Amino acid sequence: MHRFENWSTLKDLTFFQMKARYRGTAAGFLWVVLNPVILLLVQGVIFRHVLKVQMANYPAFLLGGLLPWTFFAMSLQMGVPALSNARQLLLAFRIDPTVFVLSVVLDNWINFAAAFGIAIFGITVMSDASALGWHLVLFPAAAILLLAGIYGLVMYLALFNVFFRDVRFICHFILNILLFATPVFYPVDLIPADWRWAVEYNPMTILIEPVRLSVMGFSEGVALPAFRNALLLSAGLLLLSMQYWKRRRNEFYLYL
User: Fold this and answer.
1) How many CB atoms within 10 Å of residue 176?
2) What pTM, to 2 d.p., does this model score?
3) How far apart are CA 78 and CA 73, in angstroms?
4) Distance between terminal CA atoms of the chain?
5) Where are the domains of the chain?
6) d(C-alpha 119, C-alpha 1), whole Å
7) Angle at 212 between CA 211 and CA 214, to 5 degrees
């Protein structure tokens, strides 16, 4: 019964998050979806035609990195302070904090999936449509791994922020640096060999790679390690956040 109530609460909270975001806007859902799509088009023009990044099917490459990054950045910005900002709600209704944070991340994930679907259509117009093939069937698995990993990270940081309120500001600072250390706009091959390890072991690189492979195509020798690494990282982040919650749940409401 408790598990069923959590699922019902998650559905209601996610719907509330989406409704609250679009309240008072004329276009509603379209603004949230079109924002990353427009950013994708602008960045594609800048990096391909202004900075002259020479890469086959660059729009698809950018799609596989920019939209997951946007999902990550929005989830981090909204999710880390979510528990502290919802203090009255959590105290009044005793909502499971893990479910509350998941609703925030899930709201952004739905926007990511919708924007991805729209962007795929744009890719078929901007580049060779034949580059998009059967490998797209692996996108749902890649998207779920991305959701799990980002939720695990955001959940841990949101809990940590309750006990140490500086976390949200530190995350904003690190997010700006991490953008340039993640191959969102550029291929890893452009990084000098001596520094390539810093990009390849970047957690966001690991989580983004399966999404990018589902767009760009892959060989078996590349895909299996990428999905395995994303699975291990996602499971590790989820375990870390759940263990931290279990360890500090008794004092959570005192600090909230």
Assistant:
1) 10
2) 0.87
3) 9
4) 27
5) 2-255
6) 40
7) 65
